[in-house]
Specification:
This protein is mainly α and 55 residues long. Helices cover 80% and strands 0% of the residues. The protein is built from three helices and no strands. It starts with a helix and ends with a helix.
């Protein structure tokens, strides 16, 4: 049961992450905002977002 829950959570995270990355890509969310929210630099935030765009 726990493994199924983990699997479903992983799927949900990847879907939401992909949607959020798309919002950044099309300019609805500025990279500066993402970096601030993550508490990191814009370069590091860009790498993080790219990870969801190109898993």
């Amino acid at each position: 049961m726990a493994l199924k829950a983990i699997s479903l959570l992983g799927y949900l995270i990847s879907e939401v992450g992909a949607d959020a990355a798309l919002a950044v890509q099309v300019g609805r969310i500025p990279m500066e905002t993402v970096a601030t929210a993550l508490g990191t630099s814009e370069a590091a935030a860009r790498r993080y977002v790219d990870g969801y765009r190109h898993p």
